[in-house]
Amino acid sequence: MAIVDALKDLFPGGWPWQRGAPKYCRPIPLIFSRFREVLKANNRALELIADMGEKLSGDYLFDQRYVHTTVEELIQAMHEAVAALNNLTEDRWTALVEILAELEARVRTIVTGRDDREGPALLWLTDIQSHHWPLVGGKAAHISELCQSPQTQVPEGFVITTRSFHDLLDANGLREDFARFEQLMADGQVDEEPLEALRAALEQKVQQAQPPPDLIAALTAMVERLQEAVGAGAAPLFLAVRSSAQEEDMDFSFAGQFRSVLQVPAQPAAIFQAYLQVVASLFGAKAVRYRRQVFPEGGPLSIAACCQRMISAKASGIIYTEDPMTPGSRDMLVVGAFGQGQAVVEGQLPTDFFRLAKGEPPQLLDATIARKEEALMGVADADGGLATVKVTAAQAQEPCLAEAKLLELAGIASRLETLFKRPQDIEWTVDTADTLYILQARPLLLREAGQERKPLSEKLADYPLIATAQGRVAQQGIGAGPVCLVETLADLKTFPEGAVLVSHRDSSQFVQVMQRAAAIVTEVGTPVSHMATLCREFRVPCLVGVPEIFGKVIAGEEITVDADDRRIYRGRVVELLTYQAATAMNVQMAPEFRVLRRILRTVSRLHLVDPLMQDFRPEGCKTFHDMLRFIHETAVLTLVDIGRDEECVSGGKVARHLDLPIPAGILVIDIGGGLAPDAPADHVPYSAVRSLPFRAILQGMLFPEVWHRAAMPVSFRDMMHSMLTAPQDALSGQYTGHNIAIISDTYVNLCFRFGYHFNIIDAFCHEVERDNHIYFRFLGGATDIAKRSRRATLIATILEAFDFSVRTRGDLVIARTSNLVQSEMERSLDILGRLVGFTRQLDVQMTDEAAVERYAEAFLMGDYGIVAREG
Amino acid sequence: MSDKVKRLLVIDDEPIVGKRLQQVFSKIGFEVETYTEPVAAMAAMAAHPFDIVVTDLKMEGMDGLEVLRQAKAMNPAARVIIITGYASPDTAELAQQQGVFAFLAKPFRLDELKQVIFRALEELEAGQ
């Protein structure tokens, strides 16, 4: 059983309550106070992470000083959280200390700008994860994202990372020159001459550099992997070696500034030579001039090289997802020619020109076919390279792409535009087998129409406003599209490409459609929710807390969301969309944003979601957030176990019976403000419960008809089953008959054990909605697994209907919700209370699949009497 | 608000500040000039006065209080907003005495600054 395994992992030395002979009980108030220390440190760290995330929305003005001080505070809070947990558990989790040290070092590497130096020398394209982005450079990062996009074919390959760049500098004694070069570049008033001399020297020295140790061996292994991926017996393999400068979002601005070497024979020595050309171009006169003009404060730059299989191209070209001449026209432009795309990009040969209308499906509007007498083709001999070859007279008149292929290309391009949230400039190629490949995608820079000096605000005055100055910015940006109203999570399944998601409340489940969404607007929610964090990751413009927006828009109508200025317009506001695409110096590229974004990637992602998974252990923590999750869960488990331990709890004055009109048999442990100060020492009445979340649950349990009193008729087989399985149920020994609620004014941790099932509700609820959470776990039962699983399905169905995110596995259900305002928290907890009562012994009645639906329907309709009627 | 072009001067030694405010306020119709060096900013103000000045407090060469004093000397109607990560009560009081329009602690929401600036504009217009 998964939970048993997981708990065993959590307590490698054996169950804490079974370990060691004489029972040693620490004073419970001491344990409580230590528990609260853990919560305090944890919350402090989580608040700082949320705060940094919020700054990334673009809605704030922050500076480097903010980044540095916040990171220091966060590291401090992390140390405190680890210390507090070890204090609570008597040093059972010292492993966390080392893990924190490692993560802390990684964060400091980012803050000091050294994160392009540490990591693998080479990376296979599809192995690239977002934390690798500083290592692989912008172009390769984009290409690795393309690999994740379904229906997009990308040629296989690997990246020679910026770590190799630094190795190359060190191995060839170029470190000092490089440092001096960057120093001169950073100085706005530098003399031209010394900079020019240094630049030229570096360019030349790099061209003659020797490979750093192990690079050739690593290249050999990658080439072998590539051969394997392509398959034996294929034509001789050649590579395209392209520059990929370090800054992920800046890359597009460097278009054409650095070298690319095409048709490189797939041999390590040849690849290394091509790589040197790419690296040397970082110091090329053209690139240096450009950098000084465009990114004077850009900071040091390193370079990676993306090495991909050359496609034996029948035709290649470019597609723009917007016409730069008439922005907002919804036209796409395709330019193409036979053979390799280099000729198209550099305008060397005549090209075909196509205009298409965006849409589902796209439409070909107009085609201008050039007479293409030549094509650029790869040379398949030992030296490789490209050569211009003659095209037959008949073929020269043909379009380079058939209409069907054009439409396929337009469809893929549209999806990439929605994925990257900006108009795209995409390089494509079609091979001799007619397979369409995407080689590169970068933001298309548009210019605002003409020299018109009319301010944007005047142009916008004519558009009808749906909302203005309402809500909060979760992620800045501008997005337009048809409205898709999302009422339940099921609506996400039919979410159209490029639509604007409008919903009553926010949900991290929206992540399913973020790649396809143009913008998100919700009526409630906060800029620090999980959803907001995800919006920032996917760069979906997002406004939260816009009152009554749901009623102000109609499904399918086009709206434009300006999440910079908190305005929502009816219709498609072309001027705003153009403005967005034309703003070349996007704020997200500023060094402060880049550093903060990288830090958050290392800090705020949550991999360790499920305490039941094998990796829920210190070694599984990949981020600060993982550690905090682990610390919190472990602290709660520690507290719960101590609370459950009869020897420590009973006899003490800590656990008190709760007197309810229903026989729920709950023992209450108050850790602060959970009960009225004058509550009796035992047999506490419901009226004395002050804990907000606990009261809400009890209210649900006490709702008329929810708590069916009659015991379910357990069949002989069910009975035998429970008797046979119970002793092997490792959980059965621990909770000797008691249901225990650990409560404070704002917290409840409620463990139920009814009829051999095990149910935890853990909830925190107060006026700050971002702190609020509900965690619900349900497992087991007395009957056979089929019936238990049906009950699990029933519970999952009901919880999903109430907007919990739910996971089930066999008879285990885990449901979560968070970030709700207090009133919604109370409502959800009330529902959970009803559910606990309603499904208490229901597994017995789950005789067939139809029962699941019948009971779910009844619950949702408020017909709780069904259990007694049918039972 | 009147149709007169609204001119905004931004001074902060961290370039991101000027860059962000330039972007945000030109989008809504302001004419924005940004400086990382207060001395140069004051020279610009001497050449062509600004009605609204947003300045950092701690900068090399000249601090925000000095910017406030000089800006007020050049244009007594100018509304000066100081943005800072470090405001101590003493500095705040000193700035109040010298007629600062508002203090904003960094980091702040751009919308907060917008509201402050709109308020300053209203005051300016009411005073004219």
Helix content of chain A: 25-40%
> Stretches of chain B where pLDDT falls below 50 for ≥5 residues?
none
Provide the number of structural domains of chain B.
1
* CATH architecture verdict of chain B: 3-Layer(aba) Sandwich
Count of DSSP helices of chain A? 27
> How many distinct beta strands of chain A?
31
The portion of residues forming beta strands of chain B comes to: 15-25%
Structural class of chain A: alpha+beta
SS-based structural class of chain B?
alpha/beta
Instruction: Say how many strands of chain B there are.
Output: 6
Distance between the termini of chain A: 29 Å
Average of pLDDT of chain A: 83
- Average of pLDDT of chain B: 87
Would you kindly provide a brief summary of this structure?
The complex is a heterodimer of chains A (871) and B (128). Chain A contains 27 helices and 31 strands.
Question: How would you characterize the overall build of this protein?
Answer:
The complex is a heterodimer of chains A (871) and B (128). Chain A is α+β, with helices and mostly antiparallel strands. Chain A has five domains: 23-112 and 602-629, no CATH class; 122-309, 2-Layer Sandwich (Dna Ligase, domain 1); 313-431, D-amino Acid Aminotransferase, Chain A, domain 1, CATH 3.30.470; 457-583, Glucose Oxidase, domain 1 (3-Layer(bba) Sandwich), CATH 3.50.30; 645-870, no CATH class. Chain A is 38% helix and 20% strand. Chain A is built from 27 helices and 31 strands. Chain A has a nine-stranded mixed beta sheet with strand order 25-23-24-26-27-28-29-31-30, sandwiched between helices. Chain A has an eight-stranded mixed beta sheet with strand order 15-22-21-17-18-19-20-16. Chain A has a six-stranded antiparallel beta sheet with strand order 10-9-8-7-13-14. In chain A, strand 13 and strand 14 (436-443) form a beta hairpin. Chain A starts with a helix and ends with a helix. Chain B is an alpha/beta fold. Chain B has a single domain, classed as Response regulator (Rossmann fold, 3-Layer(aba) Sandwich), CATH 3.40.50.2300. Chain B has five helices and six strands; from the N terminus they run βαβαβαβαββα. Chain B has helices spanning 15-27, 38-47, 64-74, 89-97, 110-127; strands at 6-11, 30-35, 52-56, 79-84, 102-105, 108-109. In chain B, helix 2 runs parallel beside helix 3. The mean pLDDT of chain B is 87. The interface between A and B is medium-sized, with 25 and 22 residues. Strand 1 (60-61) of chain A pairs antiparallel with strand 6 (108-109) of chain B, so a sheet runs across the interface.
